[in-house]
User: Fold Glycosyl transferase GT4 family from Butyrivibrio hungatei.
Amino acid sequence: MKTIAFHLNCLVQGGAERVVTNLANKFAEEGYKVYVATEWYDENEYELDQRVTRVHVGLKDTDEKKGRVTKFLLRVKYLKEFLREYRPDVLVAFAHRANYRALMANKGFGIPTVISIRINPIGFYDSFSDKIQIKWLFPRAAGCVFQTQQQREFFKPYLQENSRIIMNPLNPKFIGVQRPEVKEKVVVNHARIVDFKNHPMLVDAFAIVHDKHPDYVLKIYGPDSFDGTREKVERKIAEHHLENCVFLMGSCNEIDKEIPKAEVYAYSSDYEGFPNSLLEAMAMGMPVVSTDCPPGGPKMVIRDGENGFLVPVGDHEALADRICKLIEDKELAERFGKEASKVSEIANVQTVFEQWRDYLEEIVKDKKD
Assistant:
């Protein structure tokens, strides 16, 4: 394998986009010719290595007024034109619709296509239209990369058999960060403010924490998704009269400096693909409390009671109880933090890259044989 192409919607800052950027840059660094084929450009995007070639395969300005079905077929057509021109040795699609487009566009080229599941399949791959497309298209996939075992178990055996479970790679800046000797009385979270992250539940939990420990504050870092969740969080803050101790910090370019200042890291998601934010917090040596959300990402890295706590999804009382436990037991929090930081041994860029490289090399070799 000499050339590899990744296909996804865009590189706007998010989970799948960060993984593709890290992988593309690492493959380029290792001497592979790398293409990233995206549907559109955004203002707030991850930066690609200059050795990576980015190609626009989305709609043209003249396509915008066309019908929905026509637009879908044009997206497939433009991706097909990309494959015809650049002829990568393997095509790797990331995320829901990109998986379908890649498998449709690749018909007739013989280029092995690897799809990647980046979200909880329940609710995203179980609609009537998804079931039809999966039955029609997924058998064409040369392989599939999952993030968790629960994701893999959702799909038919034919897809499970030729697949891999590969964790998301950590940004190196979160590994080996300096932790302050004296922590601030802060519970912290960093994640995009969007419905499934369930920040309102986190505020409910912190209200209980604050009753027991009124000198602590909650800081939530992360951009607004503009889906109405921030407004719900603000209403929760007002409802509990926490305006002076719960702070929505917005985006932060120095999150690796801010997170370690806090005493406890709390994660409240209802579901995830794989929670990069939680992984980053653990790598930074934070004692963490997380919901045991599907499809099993937190459970892959947290051993409950050994390097963090897991609590049921939506249970703000359990979340509050475990946060208080870590506030009150400094020795336990310190031990959890040290154990949590060891996640960098299995989720560093080099380790994750080698798993992807070995799997894709195997896929390409099997295709040639």
About this structure: The first strand starts at residue 3 and ends at 8.
